[in-house]
Write a structure and sequence with these properties.
about 240 residues; alpha/beta; Rossmann fold; four-stranded parallel sheet
């Protein structure tokens, strides 16, 4: 049987670096945005159809990516696009996709693909909030709350069925170790001589000089839980 993977992570949290690494390791993505974005020079690694379908689905339910609705009802058009998307890729032995809004729409994807495997990634809350402020003019407080909402959904999915979670760390060596370990967990080839090692380029990443403590207590709690589960250094996730 073929395998399908999805990267789960908040916007501006390293999802593109992770998905690009998995793509280089052999995961088929199909046609995706792979260049032309100032903040992601190597591309978002996201299929155009999912970006538009997901945002329209959120809009039809009275929300958006930055104002998630409390309840999601998939319409006929969204179900049809989802079906076509799966059919266009599921002849490949291992395929995958990532689009940050997926975290808000997990019930629909789990329903369509019960065998779907997940890989999670997260980044320090202040780093994400400042990146969203720069990209979308979202104020820092709202960015932190949005980070918490998305990452609570990441934790909820993990609690339903464990999967590897990686921290998009400020330490580039930690990121590389995490990417290599994730590939190993998933049974994918990670070449140390180029290819997927080079997809993650620390020179393309903006490191915001921001405070890294004094988070609101509920957000600190979420971040601490994620760090405990992270496979960057202590390899808590079990080997296959």
């Amino acid at each position: 049987m073929n395998r399908c993977l999805s990267v789960l992570g908040m916007h501006r949290s390293g999802t593109s670096a992770l998905m690009g690494t998995l793509r280089d390791a052999g995961v088929y993505l199909g046609e995706v945005f792979d260049n032309g974005f100032p903040l992601n020079p190597k591309g978002l690694q996201e299929p155009r159809s999912l970006i538009y379908m997901h945002e329209d689905l959120l809009n039809k339910n009275g929300g958006s990516w930055k104002n998630p609705p409390s309840k999601i009802i998939w319409g006929d058009l969204h179900l049809a696009i989802r079906k076509l998307f799966i059919e266009s890729r599921n002849t490949h032995s291992i395929w995958g996709f990532k689009e940050p809004r997926t975290l808000l729409l997990l019930d629909g994807w789990n329903e369509a693909l019960p065998q779907l495997e997940y890989v999670g990634i997260f980044r320090h809350p202040f780093e994400v909030a400042h990146s969203l402020h720069k990209r979308n003019a979202l104020n820092i407080v709202d960015g932190l709350e949005l980070w918490n909402l998305y990452n609570l959904k990441l934790l909820s999915q993990y609690e339903a069925k464990a999967f590897p979670i990686l921290e998009f760390h400020q330490d580039s060596n930690q990121v590389r170790k995490g990417l290599e370990h994730v590939c190993h967990i998933l049974g994918l080839e990670y070449s140390a001589d180029g290819g997927n090692e080079n997809f993650f380029d620390p020179n393309m990443r903006t490191i915001n000089e921001t405070q890294t403590d004094n988070l609101p207590s509920h957000i600190q709690h979420t971040y601490t839980r994620l760090r405990y589960l992270s496979c960057n250094s202590d390899n808590r996730y079990p080997e296959i």
